[in-house]
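Re-run with default settings, no changes from the original entry. Doing this only to confirm the output is reproducible before filing.
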Amino acid sequence: MNQPSSNFFRFRLKDKPCRIHYLDWGGPTLPVLFCAHGLTRNSRDFDFLARKLSENFRVIALDYPGRGLSDWLDNKMDYTIPNYVEVSMALFEELKLGTADWLGTSMGGLIGMLVAALYPERLRHLIINDVGPEIPETAANRINDYLSVTMAFDDLADFEEHLRLIYAPFGELSDRQWQHLARYSHYRNQNGKILANYDPGIVVPFKHNASEDADLWEIWKKIGKRIFLLHGENSDILSPAILEKMKQLQSGLVSKSFRNTGHAPALMDEAQIEFIKYCLNTKGND
């Protein structure tokens, strides 16, 4: 079974050094798919997809600051989308990627919208997984509620059960897939307790803005790339009204909804992977 190389690069955020981890799948001469994860997630979310694609694509998946194996930030208010855009572009430069396709889940989709609008020359296609330019307040409050509670577990089986509960909207995952998420979503603290492997401080800027809907509609209008969208049919993040407005403002948007799935499709299901293959094999920018 093919495996990625695990790497780190140094990034300076406001003149403070930060070590960023990323996975690199496939050969260096292949076309690039850049993968950006969700708010509390990490680079290993794309493993099942990358194994399917890495024969034909170089798949780059990073851990944004405060997640996975990347450094946690001292100033928690620095956990912001614009800073994640900077991290992404720094990795583009580090690897001399040139142009890439972008796949972003939730937060990663928001980052991708900004990259597509601000650095259009760096992207070919934008693939967004279950997020729009506006986050409903009820969904933001739900996320804020579970981010505000830090839970510790004695063994991995209990942690996996917790993941099955909070990430039930990911869809109908196999036992192997849940085990994969549990394996790569935790760390042990100095007392041997199992915790989710993200900085609880990522909630600080999120909580600060929880009562305000995100508004990237002006950015959305400026995107001039082919845009593809995966939509969880039961998603509370991407409502039918938001999806309809997205289509009105970007008439070329190609979307596909997935049944028995909420926020967000886990990108482990064969139908979801096939749709992403279709997106990547679509030629042209119009």
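The two ends are 36 Å apart (CA to CA). Residues 5-135+215-281 form a domain with the Rossmann fold fold (CATH 3.40.50.1820).
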